[in-house]
Fold:
Amino acid sequence: MTLTSDLADTVATIRAEVAHLHAELPRWGLVVWTAGNVSARVPGHDLLVIKPSGVGYDELTPEAMVVCDLDGNLVDGDHSPSSDTAAHAYVYKHLPEVGGVVHTHSTYATAWAARGEPIPCVLTMMGDEFGGEIPIGPFALIGDDSIGHGIVETLRNHRSSAVLMQNHGPFTIGPTAKAAVKAAVMCEEVARTVHIARQLGEPIPIDPDKIVALYERYQNVYGQPEVTDR
Amino acid sequence: MTLTSDLADTVATIRAEVAHLHAELPRWGLVVWTAGNVSARVPGHDLLVIKPSGVGYDELTPEAMVVCDLDGNLVDGDHSPSSDTAAHAYVYKHLPEVGGVVHTHSTYATAWAARGEPIPCVLTMMGDEFGGEIPIGPFALIGDDSIGHGIVETLRNHRSSAVLMQNHGPFTIGPTAKAAVKAAVMCEEVARTVHIARQLGEPIPIDPDKIVALYERYQNVYGQPEVTDR
Amino acid sequence: MTLTSDLADTVATIRAEVAHLHAELPRWGLVVWTAGNVSARVPGHDLLVIKPSGVGYDELTPEAMVVCDLDGNLVDGDHSPSSDTAAHAYVYKHLPEVGGVVHTHSTYATAWAARGEPIPCVLTMMGDEFGGEIPIGPFALIGDDSIGHGIVETLRNHRSSAVLMQNHGPFTIGPTAKAAVKAAVMCEEVARTVHIARQLGEPIPIDPDKIVALYERYQNVYGQPEVTDR
Amino acid sequence: MTLTSDLADTVATIRAEVAHLHAELPRWGLVVWTAGNVSARVPGHDLLVIKPSGVGYDELTPEAMVVCDLDGNLVDGDHSPSSDTAAHAYVYKHLPEVGGVVHTHSTYATAWAARGEPIPCVLTMMGDEFGGEIPIGPFALIGDDSIGHGIVETLRNHRSSAVLMQNHGPFTIGPTAKAAVKAAVMCEEVARTVHIARQLGEPIPIDPDKIVALYERYQNVYGQPEVTDR
Structure:
């Protein structure tokens, strides 16, 4: 398939953004080796841009990024797409408001996932970012729609932008790829902080009304007026 | 409002210092993404210089810093002030000896805050820097004076330069912004070390008289004669 | 011994690769000071290339690497070989499919080794990479064949590419040195994640059939077609 | 006091070495802010070279290092000596075989010190480096000979090159300053690894005879023939 000239320009911009955002994953300690990926929707098209499979973070140039359709088939690019592409594609297909998806095996979030235990909302920054607990998604094997289906069913009726897939690790979503990366960073940070709090006793719960107040203020007020990524 | 020429020079110097000090927060692992802020009082004026809201640490140039009055209103700058500005402003208004304030969600300090448990003074370096335990402040929502009030009421009668706001995280103060940053770094370090000590048993208490002796010696003797930031 | 001209070219290439791969050990936090080593088999010869003993990671040039025979004797190089050379050599001698060996004292893997407890397979990424639990090898003193023998006897009938030698630390193997380094990175990551999961309760087991499915898919499908190192 | 020309050359070399070695402390995560120091004996003179007090690691040039006598008095230099100088000086005065001393508050070692609990020897790398457990020294206040006395009395009859001063932190010694820095790095690493092992159960003890065998081999065989720092 050849991309039209207009679309090629858009895709080139998104490839550069997705390549650039991958550098945030090792920067914040979310990944080892090649184990994590960022994707972005191509607005107005049934396409996404994602990391190639098994390529190191040092080699992730814009040109190395691949373009796939929303069934996960390769449309443009010199490499095989990430083996998690089907899950990303499923999310874009079923959650039209999502513009970016991130998957990592970040340590503390994955530890909660291994126990199948949601992270309780006991931090104001967790209320700000996630509006409540971070939920657990089902155990699902790679190879068909199971992972994507599990993500969508868990997040569809939830304020949280993160889901911990059981025995597997976190997936995060956002209106943009940058917002999804931020959610991945914050997910690991709250997973770590609540874990450490719990090691020496029980954290104090936050009143659910106050969690909602924190979430609504943060989503509407925080940041610079012109900034669209939360 | 236009700053007078003299004041503009002073503010430019403080903007550079505050921008520079923000680099210490990621350097010592105290913050992720944009979640932490440093401010400094403008000496002799009812003004403070603080980080803009939601701007990444890589973009924190001196020019990006904003000037606010002690009610938290923007006086000079191209960005919105940090959403924590009201709390910083309240501290400067009510504690005239304070020249700098720092707020982070550093992991171990925030974990103690989530349990609402003060950090006991079981390390000589904690006696040196904090003169005793690090206390807990009340749960308070952002949006009015509650956070600032909680900080001031907790620290007013305490040797500690750090307070852990319940379910939220640490605020630290100092005679200068650099001293407040140092207190933030040391607060996280003692929060981590005492946490780890407690994981395998009970730390040995230090006699209160000896804590006072450590504190008084350190505050008066340590460092170079010409250095004013502790 | 003088290397023939053809062999000298091959060895020069492998020396550069082994020197380069040593940089991955501090990069991923697997080693402190000089405590870890990577080796590669010289294909078609009873030779290996390994780190010299007690030399810092900053000084590991290709020229500093040493060539030994499969009894661990120095064949070419200006330094003494790593004190772990006998163990590496034993592995190459008895496991002909192995092209690379790595030894570290990475923190979490060594902690499991200190308790003599295998790491249970409760993470999908662990199924992918190791195909099941990571086993414990016997306690063995340095100085004769005991360590090499323990590694070979433990891994010979096991899917895992990593073994935790009791009270000592992990050894990993792979078809190439890069694959063995990847196994060392993943071994520490799963050791850390499962440790953290276990601190607050019991991880959920993964069905053994599903572990096999994950392993077989990953070993055959993952990565780029032209990439030989898994 | 003016140094003679010969001595000035020797001291300049040692100043450069001590300044350089300070960079290893933040590199291996042993210190925050300015809290740690390295010293070296001036061979053949009752003098030592040490870090100045309260100066950041970025500013530690050779010229900033100070020279003191073995009572801790300043002999040469533009800054006040480290507030720990008296302890270093006492060690050099009473242990003539010591050529370097390091003091840090490294996190895990300090956590053992807070409980007053020696680190048991359950790792082969601990047998190699320390020849047994790392002992606890007494609680001692800064300001007189108590800290130095506690270090010397604890280490005088011990194979260990590290002592954990109760509620305070580790001091390490070595034939050279570099060896003492290595001991500080290894002390924190074994403190961390044994802590983590103990979190989920009891480590397996190593037979005392085997610990001695490890220690004797490592101290005599490891490293390059020409290398003097272990």
